[in-house]
Amino acid sequence: MQTGIFCFRNDLRLHDNQALSAALDTCDKLHLVYAFEDRLWKGSAPNRISTHRARFLLESLQCLMKQINRLGGRLKIVHGNIDISIPQFMHKHGAEICFLSKESAWEENKTEEALSKVVPTTLISSPTLIHPNDLPFALSELPETFTQFRKKVEKNWTVRPCLSPPESLNSDGTTHANLPTLLDLGFTMNSLDPRSCFTFHGGSSSGKKRVKDWLWDKQCLSSYKLTRNGMTGPDFSSRFSAWLATGSLSPREIYEEIKKYEIQYGANESTYWLIFELLWRDFFHFLARVHGSKIFQSRGIHPEREKRLEPDDAEDRFDKWKNGRTNNPFVNANMNELRITGWMSNRGRQNVASYLINNLELDWRRGAQWFEEQLIDYDPCSNYGNWLYLSGFGSDPQPGRYFNLEKQAATYDPQGKYTNTWS
Ligand SMILES: Cc1cc2nc3c(=O)[nH]c(=O)nc-3n(C[C@H](O)[C@H](O)[C@H](O)COP(=O)(O)OP(=O)(O)OC[C@H]3O[C@@H](n4cnc5c(N)ncnc54)[C@H](O)[C@@H]3O)c2cc1C
Fold first, then answer.
1. Could you read off the pLDDT of 208-227 as tens digits, one per residue?
2. Which end of the chain has fewer CB atoms < 10 Å from its terminal CB, N or C?
3. 42 CA → ligand 1 middle, Å
4. Which mutation among 149, 206, 238, 386 tests ligand 1's pocket best, with the greatest number of atoms within 8 A of CB?
5. Is the CB of 237 under 6 A from ligand 1?
6. pTM above 0.85?
7. Which domains does the chain have, with CATH numbers?
8. Residue 363: CB within 6 Å of ligand 1?
9. Per residue in 61-95, pLDDT tens?
C-alpha cells in the first residue's frame, strides 16, 4: 500500500498529464496538492505577479478543483515553497513519495532539486510538444539557433499521443480546500476594461472552449499566418499562450487538434505556422534547460559579448516606458494595454522590447521583469528567451534586432486605430 502526493504546478489539468498518470499508476492512495509558493506570491519589488495573472491563475485552480471533485477527489492547498510545504504535508499525511511535472526554468529546477533532497521525488517532463527524450540529439547538443533546431526536429518528428484524463480520483480527504481569493492574496479586484480584447477565463474548460471557438467554429486557423501580426480584436492570434503557461492546455492537445483540423479543412501554410510557433516555445524551453541561470543574466548565453552600460537617467526612462509615457505614441499604446489588461500582441511585444533596448538603451532585464509581472501568459522560458533574442545575448545569429517604430506603426496600425484606442 503506497501513499503518495501529486503536486500540481504549471500543469493545471487532468488530461494529458504524464506525471499525474504516473502517480495514479504507482500509488494506492494519492493526495492532490497545490502550493501557493512564497517565491511567487510574497514577492517584493520587482513583483512577480500582477492582478491580471493572479486572477487567471485562481480561475484555473477553481476549474481544476471542480474537475477533481467531479471524479471524487479533493485538491488540498498548502502555502510556502514546495521544498518546505510539500515535505511538511507528506509528513502529516504519511505520504512516502511525491510526483511532479518537471519544469524547464532554473528557479523551478532549483526548487525541484531542494525538494528531492528531502523526500523521495519523481519528476516527469511534460511542458513541451516534443518530449526531451524524443529529440534527435542530446539536450546538451541543442542547436544554437531556432532555425537549426527546427530543421533537425522536423526531419525526425515524434509527438507522443495525448493521455486521457483519469476515470476516477479517490484521493484522500473529505474537506474541500479553501482557495484564497484575490483579496486574501493582497490584490485589489479590477473590473475588465471595455477596450480589452483579452476577455478569457483561466482553466482547461475555458481553454478548450477557445480551441473550439477559434479553431473549429470560426476556422481562424486557416488564415492564421495572414492575421498573426494583428494588434486589435480577439481573433488575429489564438491566445492559447495563457492556458499553455498555466498548463490548462497541453501543447500536444493543440497539435492533435491542428492535425484533425488539417484532415477536415485541409493543411496550408497557416495550419503549419501554428505548429511552427509551438516549436519556438519548445526551443525556448530547451534553451532554458540547457543554459540554466544564464538566461536571466544581462549577457545571457553570450558572456563574451561586450557589456552595455545604461544611461544615468535609466530609472526615469524605465518609469516612462512601463507607464506608457515615452515620446513614442505607438510604444505607449502597447504599454498601456499591457498594464491595463495583462495582454499585448506579439507584434507589440517585439516593438516595445526593441524600443527599450535600442532607443532607451536600457538593460533588457528591466523589460523582461516588467513583462514577468504584467503578462497573463507569462512563461519564464518564452519571456526571457524572447527578450534575450532581441537583445543580442540570446539565440539570434544577429547581434540584436532593431525595429523601426515609425515603419512598424505605419505597417501594423496604418490608421492609428490601435494607438488611439490605448493612448
Ligand atoms: C519580448 C517578448 C516576450 C514574450 N513573453 C512571452 C511569455 O511570457 N509567454 C509566452 O507564452 N509567450 C511570450 N512571448 C511570445 C509571444 O509573443 C506569445 O506567445 C504570443 O503573443 C501569445 O499569443 P497567442 O497565444 O495568441 O500566440 P499565437 O500567435 O496564436 O501562437 C500560438 C502559440 O505559439 C507559441 N508562440 C508564439 N510565438 C512565440 C514566441 N515568439 N516565442 C515562444 N512561443 C511562441 C505560444 O505558445 C502561442 O500560444 C513573448 C514575445 C516577446 C517578443
1. 999 999 999 999 999 999 99
2. N
3. 26
4. 386
5. yes
6. yes
7. 3-126 (3.40.50.620), 205-293 (1.25.40.80), 297-421 (1.10.579.10)
8. no
9. 999 999 999 999 999 999 999 999 999 999 999 99
